[in-house]
Amino acid sequence: MESTAQIWNHYIKFESEDNKMKAKCKYCGKELSENSSSNGDPSKLAFQNNRDSGLTTLNSWTFDKDLAREDYIKMIVVDELPFKFGEGSREFQATVQPMFQIPTRWTVARESYGMYALRRYNLNISLLEQKQRLCLSTDTWTSYQRINYMCLTAHFIDKDWKLHKTILNFCPITSHEGKAIV
């Protein structure tokens, strides 16, 4: 009688030298004899107990276009990329993940400002709720575009004694010299 279970698509059946039926896994080479009491269910053996570290496990996932769009815009902001960054790679992106459409430069500008406004609002609420002391510090730096900035940072410890630091504001400055900063 021929086996119809799909698991047998992953085995090569053969007769051993001692005239017993055996099956050899096409992937790891492990041999199973026909005695099911010693081997158990072949599907369990193949895919649960005898996993080869070289085999890849496939997992299903769901594409979240809103999360992808948000992460794309975060990448643009964090890496200081121009808003039009992805416009040249639309064809490539359609090949890699057809469900994701690269937003236009105007959409990136609008949504990055929206993200900023939401983060600023949440930060204000968080600082008001803390009712803790905070320390302020300033720093200057130069961006990849060679623009000088001054930054105002708040440092505080929350109720769980975790240290936080967050940028409250920054502005462009002409140079890092004391005269320009004052």
Automatic annotation (TrEMBL):
Domain BED-type: from-to ranges: 6-39
Metal-binding among the record's keywords?
yes
Report the Pfam families cross-referenced here.
zf-BED
TM annotation in the entry: none
Give the keywords, sorted.
Metal-binding, Transcription, Transcription regulation, Zinc, Zinc-finger
Superkingdom field: Eukaryota
Q: Which GO terms describe its molecular function?
A: DNA binding; zinc ion binding
Under the heading PANTHER family, the entry gives: ZINC FINGER BED DOMAIN-CONTAINING PROTEIN 4, ZINC FINGER BED DOMAIN-CONTAINING PROTEIN RICESLEEPER 2-LIKE
Q: What is the designated name of this protein?
A: BED-type domain-containing protein
Query: What is the species listed in this Swiss-Prot or TrEMBL entry?
Result: Daucus carota subsp. sativus
Q: What is the lineage of its organism?
A: Eukaryota, Viridiplantae, Streptophyta, Embryophyta, Tracheophyta
